[in-house]
Amino acid sequence: MRRLAIAAVLSGVVLVGLGVRAEAPPPLPYTEGSVWSMTFVKTKSGFSDDYLKSLAATWKKTFDEAKKQKLALSYKIIQSDANGRDDWDLMLMVEYKNMAALDGLHEKMRAIVLPMLGGEDGAHKLSTQRLEVREILSEKLGRELMFK
User: Fold this and answer.
1) How would you class 127 by CB atoms within 10 Å of its CB: exposed for 0-12, middle for 13-18, buried for 19 or more?
2) CA-CA to 36 of 20 to 30 Å: which in 6, 19, 54, 70?
3) Which long-range contacts (CB under 8 A, 24 or more apart) does 63-68 make?
4) Inter-residue long-range contacts of 59-66, CB under 8 Å, 24+ positions, other chains counted
5) Model's pTM, two decimal places?
6) Closest C-alpha to 57, from 122, 139, 121, 101
7) Could you write out the DSSP letters of every residue in 10-48?
8) Are strands 134-147 and 30-43 parallel, antiparallel or unpaired?
């Protein structure tokens, strides 16, 4: 019983000590902005234009519709020279309002893309064709920060 009383007193002292020392954290020098999904792609030699034509026919149309439905804010593609055979030459970027915009996004995007591609079979066929011209090296999710 005595140990329990000592533990209770010590816990109280610790909690009071934490309360006394608690200060408001300094303000951050930035505000959080939109969230970007980034896909880093390495196209096979001589196939960049073929891959970009394929993206224009499907990826662009998909995200134009996603913008209309307010699922995405914007999208863009960045092209760069690859610095070695394990480096990307295309970065596909999609901007979302915030992290919450990603909740349930997969099903919403499927509802847009599957009819466009002719269902699951069409989506599988396109995925298989793209394997011949490109490799996805990595995908990242990042938040834009704006200095105050």
Assistant:
1) exposed
2) 54
3) 63/94, 65/112, 66/94, 66/109, 66/112
4) 59/92, 61/116, 62/109, 62/112, 62/113, 62/116, 63/94, 65/112, 66/94, 66/109, 66/112
5) 0.80
6) 122
7) HHHHHHHHHHHH--PPPPPSEEEEEEEEEEEEEEPTT-H
8) antiparallel
Instruction: Please enumerate in sequence order all residues whose Cβ is within 8 A of that of 106, keeping only pairs 6 or more positions apart, or say none.
Output: none
Judge contact between 134 and 50, C-beta under 8 A.
no
Give me the domains of the chain, ranges plus CATH numbers: 30-147 (3.30.70.100)
What is the pLDDT tens value at each position of the chain, 148 positions in all?
Answer: 555 555 555 555 455 555 556 789 999 999 999 999 999 999 999 999 999 999 999 999 999 999 999 999 999 999 999 999 899 999 999 999 999 999 999 999 999 999 999 999 999 999 999 999 999 999 999 999 999 9
State the Rg of the chain over Cα: 24
Place of tokens 């816990």: 11
Residue with tokens 């090296």: 137
Nearest to 38 by CA among 136, 146, 147: 136
Share of the chain above pLDDT 70, in %: 86
